[in-house]
């Protein structure tokens, strides 16, 4: 069953949405239905948000690294002594 819905949206946003729906060969109503019928709404997320999600997944999959036994300053000092004597 279909029902009508009234929304108050900026005119520019409505025009942009209509152009997008038209470019896909569907009505604005159909485009909105498609967005909310899909289980995975992430396809509507900005690319930066998707990249952040992918990064988070990769970080969660990584093995935790062990904390160094010495400070960075000591490690640098040792490295420079080995390199330059």
Oligomer category: single chain
DSSP helix fraction? 55-70%
Distance between the termini: 81 Å
Q: For the report, how would you describe the main beta sheet?
A: none
Alpha carbon gyration radius: 26 Å
Question: By helix and strand content, what is the structural category?
Answer: mainly alpha
Helical segment count: 4
Give the overall shape. elongated
The number of strands is 0
Strand residue content: under 5%
InterPro entries: DUF6364 (IPR045944)
Short note summarizing the structure:
The protein has 85 residues and is mostly helical. The protein has one domain (11-84). The protein is built from four helices and no strands.
Structure explained in plain terms:
- InterPro entries: DUF6364.
- Pfam families: DUF6364.
- Helices cover 60% and strands 0% of the residues.
- It has 85 residues and is an all-alpha fold.
- The radius of gyration is 26 Å and the shape is elongated.
- It starts with 10 loop residues before the first helix and ends with a helix.
- The mean pLDDT is 86.
């Amino acid at each position: 069953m279909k029902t009508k819905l009234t929304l108050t949206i900026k005119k520019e946003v409505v025009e942009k949405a209509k152009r997008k729906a038209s470019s896909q060969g569907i009505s604005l109503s159909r485009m909105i239905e498609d967005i909310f019928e899909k289980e995975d709404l992430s396809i509507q997320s900005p690319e930066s948000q998707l990249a952040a999600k992918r990064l988070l997944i990769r970080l969660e999959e990584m093995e935790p690294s062990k904390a160094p036994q010495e400070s960075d300053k000591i490690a640098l000092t040792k490295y420079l002594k080995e390199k330059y004597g």
